[in-house]
Each structure stands twice: as structure tokens, then as C-alpha cells.
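Cont'd.
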Amino acid sequence: MHLKYESTIREALVDGNKSYHQVTEDICRPIEGKPTKLWAIGFWLSVSLLLFGIFCVSWEVYWGTGVWGLNRTIGWGYDITNFVWWIGIGHAGTLISAILLLFRQGWRTGVNRAAEAMTIFAVMCAGQFPIWHMGRVWNAFFVLPYGNTRGPLWPNFVSPLLWDVFAISTYFTVSLLFWYSGLVPDFATLRDRAKTKFRKMAYGFASFGWAGSAKHWQRHEMLSLVLAGLSTPLVLSVHTIVSYDFATSIIPGWHTTIFPPYFVAGAVFSGFAMVQTLLVITRKVLNLQEYITIGHIEAMNKVIVLTGSIVGVAYLTELFIAFYSGVLWEQEAFRLRVLGPYWWAYWAMMTCNVVSPQLFWFKNLRRNIWFTFFMSIVVNIGMWFERFVIMMTLHRDYLPSSWSYYVPTWPEVGFFLGTFGLFFTMYFLFAKYAPVIAIAEIKFILKTSGQNFKDKMNTIEEKADEHFLEEQLSHH
Amino acid sequence: MSIKKFAVAAYDDEAVLFPAVKKVRSAGYKIHDVFTPFAVHGLDEALGEKESDLHIAGFIYGITGTSTALGFMGWIFTTDWPQNFGGKPHFPLPAFIPITFELTVLFAAVGMVLTFCYLNQIMPGVKKHIFHPRQTDDKFVMVIEVNDTNAAETEAFLKSTGADETNIQIAESDWWYGRFDKKEDYEIQQQLA
């Protein structure tokens, strides 16, 4: 049943006068056309970056982790920084698809598919770092609790590093299931529109034979709702557990209870920035401005300014607690962060994460595409520096003779670049062969949030109350 | 697996579909199925379908995960290979919570998706008859099983409920293993006839 009045302030989520068929046409068009030159260039650039990454990792596996710039004092450098950074980026997708679903935020519908895809690819990138950091990577399966003849020797279930194994593999699996269960009906749409034999077969396979029966849709709705309910605590738990890797250790500067909420806020912050980076380009290239509107971009910028401020408060709280604790080591760790050899990283983090996002309090900046794109890059750089700053807490320990300074070597940098290759290769494939916007979900909100619905509201609002009520009741 | 005869009606909008479903049901027809391009809320109710119990299955899978995690870790740490980690107890419940939680979510999600696929009979390689090529695009398709005597009459009735396309199709009512780029035997015969 519709409401009689429609907000004049709330923007339409789908611009233009769209019919159901037009929605299908708009979203399927880029998939059904030939790949553009721009796409091919981007895709092959990503693939070559990925291949370079594979080369750098092979180099590391062959020679051992000694080829990285790590040493006895600084045992975690680029690899764990990048791991935490990527996994943080992977938080926006599930937040958009799950938490915003439970909060009934209609605008999530335009962006959730692409954001979830981004999540899955980011988690794939993140997973590489702890695996290859193991050095003897052929023994990586030792982290799994399987029956063995070594004692039997089990993994240590009370270690946060093992919690990470469970958290990240669960997060990846559940995100993938959630994402794919939404894709199944859309693949069915592509299948029924397919002209070529190969597409009919491939999308027929990918759509699992979905036909759109009413009962199946009812179960689909139930599945989405429960998966959203499960993913909501899950997304919060993952970065919490990542923060335990640091917080449960007894390193000054790491051993703090503020870490879980501060990590989660930072993860959402960087994740939304990456969504902006991708979608600002995607909507333009695939001509989807009517589905990912300026309103969507503004909504995400609001999340960025909120989480950026939470992160800023966390930085200041850390400094205050270090001072207030009266613990010499803690105070020294934070003094070194701000003024020590890595001062440049700290101030880069402060500028990019805390100061510059505050500009999003201005409405015309929130709604400016170019500024949004620029800020999304700035935030991602800032969040990378945050993780680097945390990692570099290690550079001075209790023993002055082991103080050190860490500089990454080329295989480390190459490995990081390689994960960009992996991420963008996957994203290019996704944007070309799958609907970047959830077709069925857009149709579902079209009649309650689309522009054509809003235009129709004038005549409905003029109706007498009794007349309107009668009409609505006879409808169902 | 059985090939049956169906009267098929395609509607343009869910606002036309709802009154049509009501009319068809009150006229005593049994609706085989309604296919829609997206989840139309209230349609399940209008068709007299009961609520899905999928969430109950999800709960059962979830507690299976919880007890698997707690039982397995507890057995390892207390019975199979008790170890001393910094003087901590052998059954440190707070430290078991993260893995227990993750396994609960994992079991619930995987179990529910598999149950969902099983109940809907969907899987890669499964094929179903698509009554209207635009039922996954913008058409709302109602299907009623008919026999030779009432086919024409049913089709006419469906037409009168506001459908913009109606026809009679002979189709497989169930799923089968097949490919969407190939026509099945019965589909070819139907085309010839």
C-alpha cells in the first residue's frame, strides 16, 4: 500500500521516466555490446600489473621472505599494512548490502551490487598477504584444523591470528553467497535476452535455471533478509578480529581497547572511498547516471564524513589515553608516532583522514563529482598511511640496539601493485559481463522511489482521503 | 517430469496482475505458478502461499555451527591434546567466542543457500521451461494447467482479466538437465505443429 504523501525533499533514486523494460535495457546494454577500446586498455593494463605481481611473489617464494625489507625488529611491514588496508576496503560492500538493507535505506539498491563485488575482490587481494608472508607457503594448510599425524598437533584456537583465518574465510564465503544469490535472477534476465548461442549457454548456466516463480521470489526475499542479518554482525566482527592481531599483543601503542571500534570505523571509511572511486567512473563509462545519481554519491559522502570524524576522534583519544595512562612506554610510542622518524606518515594520515574529509560538511562539495573522486583517492591514501603508522610502531622496541628503520624493497612494492592488478582485472571482468546494478532490485523500488512515481504523486495527493483509502484497499 | 498443457497469460504491470489473480482464484481456477521479473510483495499472500520456513532452517544450521565449534575446540583443548598456553584454562570460553561466532554464521549461510537451491530446484545445468521470454524482464506471467476440454475457455477467461497476451503452451512442468541454447524435443515438435 502506498502512502498518500510523498516527501518533497527526498530525491528520486531512479531519475528519468523509466519503465521496467527500460531499466533492463539500460543496465544490460553495456553487457550485450562489444567491449570498448577503453575497457580493453584498462583490462590488459590490469592483467599486466597482475602478472608483474605474480612475478614478484614468485621471486619472494623462491628466495624467501629475506628479499623483503623486514628485519628482526620490524617483522610486519608492507605485507600486513596492505592486508589490513585491503580488508578494510572490503567492508563497505557488506555494510551497504546488509546493514543498509536492515536500516531500510533505499539508496543502497543502486550501489550494492558493485560495492559487494568490490568487497569480494578486495578480500581476495587481502588474503594474499598473510598467505605469502608465511614464507614456506606450501605449508599454508597447517592453519586448518585437519586430522594429522603430527601429534596430533592442532592449530592454536586462542590465537587472534587463527581467528583471522576463520573470520576472513567466513567473510569471503558469506559475501560471495550473498552477492551471487542476488545475481542469479539478473543472470536469468540476461539469459532470456541473449542472442548468441554461447551467451544463452553461459548465462543459462550462471542463472541456475531461475525462472522467477512467485514462491521462489518469496524464498529469495527471506534468504536475503536472513543473510543480511547474519552479515551485519559478521562485517563488524571481521575488522574487530583483525584489530585483535594488534590489540592482544603487548606492544605499546597496540595494546589498546579502542582498536576494535576504531578499526571498524576506519574500514567503513576507506571502503566507501573505494566505492566512490569505482562508481564515479563506472556510472560515467556505462552511462548509468540515472541509477547512481548525485544523491547516491552525496549519501556515501555523508558516511565518509561521519566515519572520518569517528576515526579522527579515535586518533585524539589514543594520544590522550597515552598521556593520561602515565605509562612511560605508551607515551614514548605515541611521541615517536607524531614526532619520530615516521612523522611524515603520521601527518599524512592526519591530513588525509581527519582534516580534508571535513570539507564534506559543505553540500556543494558533497555533490561535486570531481571533488568526490579526488577525495576518495585522498582518503584511501590516508587510510593506507594509518595502517603503515600502526605497523611502524615496531621500529623502536625496549632495546635501543635493535632500533631500526624500515624501507620496502621492490618485491614488496611489486606484490602490492600486483594486488591492484588482481583487483582491477576482476572488476573489469565483472563490469563487462555482469549487471553492475541489481536489475530486479531497481525494478522493485522503481514504483516507490523513481522519478516517474514522484511525478504521479501530485494527482494522488489531491485526492480525498476516503477515496484514496478505498482505492488502496481494493487493490490488494 | 511430465509434459502438460498450460494456459498462459502475460500482464503488463503488477497493478493489473493483483486483481487478475483475485479474479482467477475466485472463479475456481487453480494457478500453476506466477512468474515475475522481481519480488512482488504481497503476491505470495494473494496466491495463498504460506510464509517461507527458510529462516527456521537457517537457525538450525546456525546452532549446528555453534555446537560444532565449541565441541570441537573444547574436545581438542581438554581431551585430545591439552596444552598450557600461558597458564590459561583449558576451556577458555571468551577466547573461543570469535571462532564460534564465525562458524555459526558460516554454517547458517552455506546451509541456507544450499537449502534455498534445493527447495527451488535450481543448480548450474538445470533448465526450466520459460513461458514468456520477457518474464524475467517486464512481464508478469500467470500459468494455469488445462486439458483439451477447458483450454479455450480458460484462455478466454484470462484474456478478460486484463492480460495483454494469452496463449496455450505444451510444456514440461518440472525442471530437467539441459542447456538454454538448445531446444528440447517437445519444443521442436510443438513448433512444427
